[in-house]
């Protein structure tokens, strides 16, 4: 059986593409740039990913954090691997700024329902994200 993104992540997110053997997702709620990286590995915890796959993931997370800060003009990026509800390894990379809808608290359980990103917004964002993440 091939790699599958957990059903909860599929329900909550848009698929932005595949980079460095990971799926990059974007949360549907458009109030905060909340990306989720899902490595295509059969592990549940970050420390279980070793060697080249871990290095590739770390590089991807760094590039994604830089993209979020520049493209979404965020003051901070929060990076977290919290697998309490979804057992599949996934890493949240979230753009934050003072005065965002959850500031200064975490977004989990605090993000009010908001508009879903439209295809008109998503398609050019996917292209720009792809160009940025594939740069050498």
From TrEMBL:
Gene3D superfamilies in UniProt: HIT-like
Molecular function in Gene Ontology: hydrolase activity
Keywords: Hydrolase
One Pfam family here: HIT
The HIT domain, residue ranges: 36-103
Leader sequence residues: none
Protein name: Diadenosine tetraphosphate (Ap4A) HIT family hydrolase
Species of origin: Halospina denitrificans
Upper taxonomic lineage: Bacteria, Pseudomonadati, Pseudomonadota, Gammaproteobacteria, Halospina
């Amino acid at each position: 059986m091939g790699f599958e993104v957990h059903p909860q992540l599929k329900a909550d997110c848009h698929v932005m593409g595949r980079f460095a053997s990971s799926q990059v997702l974007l949360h549907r709620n458009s109030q905060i740039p909340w990306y989720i990286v899902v490595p295509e590995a059969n592990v549940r915890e970050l420390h279980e990913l070793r060697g080249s796959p871990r290095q590739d993931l770390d590089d991807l997370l760094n590039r994604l954090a830089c993209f979020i800060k520049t493209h979404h003009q965020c003051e901070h990026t929060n990076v977290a691997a919290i697998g309490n509800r979804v057992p599949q390894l996934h890493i949240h990379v979230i753009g934050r700024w003072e005065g965002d809808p959850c500031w200064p608290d975490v977004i989990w359980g605090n993000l009010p329902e908001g508009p879903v990103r439209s295809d008109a917004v998503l398609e050019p964002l996917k292209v720009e994200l792809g160009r940025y993440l594939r740069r050498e």
